[in-house]
Amino acid sequence: MGKAMPGRLPANISQDELEMVKAMEETAVEMQKEHPDKDIIEHVNGVGSARNPSEDLLLVLREPLIVRPLEDTGLSWDEETMRVAIRLHDHANPKHHNHPALRVDSSHKLCLPCHDAFNYYCRYKAETPSTVGAATEGWPNSVIHHHNFASLTASRDIFKCDLCRCVADGLVGQYGEVLTYENMQRYRVEMCWRSKKEIDKTKMFFAIVESGTTKGTYNFNIVYIMDVWSAEQHAASFDLPFAADNAYDYDMDSSTSQQLAKHWLNLCLSDEDDQHKLCNAKIEGYMPTRLLDVASSEADGMLRLIVTEGLQHEAFITLSHCWGHNEQPILTTENLEERCLLGTSIDSLPKTFQDAVAVTRWFNVKWLCMYRPTLCPLKRHIVFSVASWIDCLCIIQDSGEDWLHEAKMMTPTYRQALLNISADATDAADSGLFRTRQPNDYVPLSLTVTGLGRSCRFTPALVFQFSWIYNAPTFERAWVHRERQLSRRVLHFTDDQMVWECCGTAGHGFASNIIPGKPLTSRAFGIDNKQHVHGLQQSRKEDLASDEEELHLSWDDICENISRKRLTVLTDMPVVLSSLAEDFAVLLQNKDQYLAGMWRYTLPRSLLWEAKQRRRRTAKLPYIAPSWSWMAVSCPTTFDARKSGFYQITYEVVEVQNIDLRYKHANDTFGPLRRGALTLQGCMRQLRFTLEGSSVDGDYVCKLFVTENGHQRLVGPHWHDYEGFLFELKCDRILEDPTLDCYCLFVSTKMVGSLGKSWTELSALLLKPDEQGEWHRIGIITFKDFYALQVRYAMTKPLTKSKTRGLWKKKHEQVREHQSASWNLYKAEKDKQRGRGEEEPKDAETDVWMPEPDPADLYAFDFGLDMEGLAVLTQETVVVV
């Protein structure tokens, strides 16, 4: 589901959702009348929403202040040349250039619109009463930042405004190349903030709005966010044990960088805050098979390979990087002795490896390990440039036995390294770690509110401060992702800053150039977090009764994340995931069974993953995993388990009778499979889809038929203008034929409720049989409400089209009547709880309004349904491979 520009409705929005949005906005207005301090409303994307769940849906209903009319800005848009016209002479009111409420203390270059907006913000903070409400009627908590995109692009490109460059980058990052002629005068930029008086720990939001259109859910989109700090609070983040008067104004290969990196490591090793227990856990005595001797290279500039057998344990550092495309020498059985005795000149190495040697010396560490188990093309039977030779210095490339051994040793090697260096800025080994940067990219914007005599600092919100991860080549690679997950500490070298990442808990896992002294969060990288397992391990120790369901949902997050990573060799995915699975098994106290990227506990629910960026059916894939595993499709995948409405109740309606796993390596139960078969028992239907094209969002436009009584019964099209999607077909490969014949095996039935409405959803696997009578997954399908009713029952005899429609309409009214009654019971119980002042239990939405059915009952929500003319489905058993 793509994002629509503000003021434009998504292509796949139904009339039902529009009514729901209107009701939400009316509720927001009433809420603000009762609670004036609730001046920024946050919308949550739930079930059935046409919006992307990742979108920031904040809403400021009040109209913004206009500090300077458009005609006084000195900017105009030339329709003929399609260019911004700038008047060099002053405008009519030169006194408006004055900004007495504001003093800029940092070196940032700000344009006139930025000065106007921040001057108003400083006046707002200094002159509004400490309480909010009627007294602030003339002081809206938002201001026009730019009247149009033409002004924004001129400030970015002509005036070189530091802040407008960030706002424009945020806009393009979310919507693509939208700063076009068609949009130049259509949209404006607003700056808004919470109306509370305090400066500390607040946020500044920048949103785009379609001018001339009423603001609302679909016409107010956040594109950039800044954290606002008091000077005192921000100064606490510079609690550094060395002089750093110019802490921002340096290149990453300076002595200040070295001091900062050593400071972060010392904080982690000392564990004075008692938050780095996981960081300091290690296996005593472990050493990799081969290491590079950095210490002795200082004498003669030669880097030698050392076989570590017989050596006592010493600290070593690892490197994560992308290979690049330049062909390099590799380590073989023939040149092993030469590499050990003579070594190689450091000056002849690619720049990234030279820099890695230098960074290792920062920490006075003797050993460096740089490898990845990438066998040369002859061994892997693939075509790609030979891996960088220094990777292969630690693995003998013409020895399959050595490769298998060292591949297994990757887990303890990265896990036991003192530190992992991550070259995140480039996809080539000859580009180096260090960059010369523009200081204002990471220096906080510093302003003084003259009316208060207080200074404040503005830094990019974490999601923007760490936005580099979405473009970093290393974050796209599955092997590098595995190395990062295994490593206890990672020092990232990015395009614009140096970032520390470790397994510290309670907000002690990150630091950066922007906030170098005291890390303030443990999830700066959002869902791409290395601490999925480590953080869960810590919480598990603190609370042995941790929710099993939440643990497995976290595993879904891990799999969604790693499915987006790239692999040169697709069959490597089970190996990449294996070490994380081993860690997770310990977390689960070895009471669960690992099943090709899933866990026995989550079956059958976890079978309902969805393939994104699907491959063509004609594309040949090697055997990676069984068809029921998300790894089989080798593309980004998502899981449905975290989606929820205001309430929902779900029952699984298929039984897993048997699991047959045959491992490629007999003793490796977390590694790749030769075969994996699930024996499932449940209700099935034979379906036919007639395809009519694809929607703008990539969904299939089609009609659904069920095979019944020897003929095809039309259920209907996939879309209804009022209801929206009546079924959603999600295939594992791109469909190219106009007709799809297959079977569905029902997996779960669900009742969902939202804003006084309720409906059922029925989810199923799409299967096709092979010549041996075994079944293969080809996708999933979700039937909503009316269609869910039609497919879970069979008609006892064929009827005319009109009588068929009448039959199902009558049955649907009966079901809806029951659903409405169930909702009223639920709502009444909630009202009673509120009236008694009782705190609602977490599971209240599922324990008061619906009788408890048989968990395997496909018809759990159909109480009171008249069965005349209908028949229930019989159970069948299938083996899915």
UniProtKB/TrEMBL annotation:
Residues 829-849 are annotated as: Disordered. Pfam families: HET. It comes from Elasticomyces elasticus. InterPro entries: HET. The lineage of its organism: Eukaryota, Fungi, Dikarya, Ascomycota, Pezizomycotina. PANTHER family: DOMAIN PROTEIN, PUTATIVE-RELATED (PTHR33112), TOL (PTHR33112:SF10). Transmembrane segments: none annotated. This is Heterokaryon incompatibility domain-containing protein. Residues 316-483 form the Heterokaryon incompatibility domain. Residues 829-845 have a biased composition (Basic and acidic residues).
